[in-house]
């Protein structure tokens, strides 16, 4: 999760988030180089009085500053399209979880099990135990197996919500009457926090999401105890 005064992204937990971080660094370097070049040219124009007559009407220069931006856009677009297709791809999910947004809590249904569903409410500040996080802890965590492809179906029963977990690179809108689909896979165990990312009413800030990623044998024990 994020820490105070953090400027960058949270540590990547899923392969998709790792790709997004690499793409961010790649694009930021291009922006940095363009900004440096423009600042250098502006500085030269302000500090020198010399004018080169051959550059006032040069076809070669105009050709370069037309082709170069096109090449830069291609260098940005190709990895972006690759990641978009990766995010939409569903490869034989081992588990399907249906997530429903309500005002103002989440409900989860493990559709591969006969009767495994529960609601997840935020724990009030007055009920928090030492070490628990304010506005982020829930009474029922969403427990999932790590290193497993999981399909997440997201919808809503009342207004627009958005199911978002930054460290997994996930943000899926929950729309009434519509079922959105996304893929989730974690490469390591742990607790991962998120929140509703769509303004959904007066208690929008009190809809936390807590994922507990555990090894497969631990998940099987948990699911057996819940049935």
Automatic annotation (TrEMBL):
A GO cellular component entry from the record: mitochondrial inner membrane
Cofactor note: Binds a copper A center.
Database matches in PROSITE patterns: COX2, COX2_CUA, COX2_TM
Every Cytochrome oxidase subunit II copper A binding domain range: 92-225
Domain of life: Eukaryota
GO molecular function: copper ion binding; cytochrome-c oxidase activity; oxidoreductase activity
Any GO BP annotation: ATP synthesis coupled electron transport
Keywords: Copper, Electron transport, Magnesium, Membrane, Metal-binding, Mitochondrion, Mitochondrion inner membrane, Respiratory chain, Translocase, Transmembrane, Transmembrane helix, Transport
Function (record text): Component of the cytochrome c oxidase, the last enzyme in the mitochondrial electron transport chain which drives oxidative phosphorylation. The respiratory chain contains 3 multisubunit complexes succinate dehydrogenase (complex II, CII), ubiquinol-cytochrome c oxidoreductase (cytochrome b-c1 complex, complex III, CIII) and cytochrome c oxidase (complex IV, CIV), that cooperate to transfer electrons derived from NADH and succinate to molecular oxygen, creating an electrochemical gradient over the inner membrane that drives transmembrane transport and the ATP synthase.
Similarity field: Belongs to the cytochrome c oxidase subunit 2 family.
UniProt protein name: Cytochrome c oxidase subunit 2
Organism encoding this protein: Platanista gangetica
Lineage: Eukaryota, Metazoa, Chordata, Craniata, Vertebrata
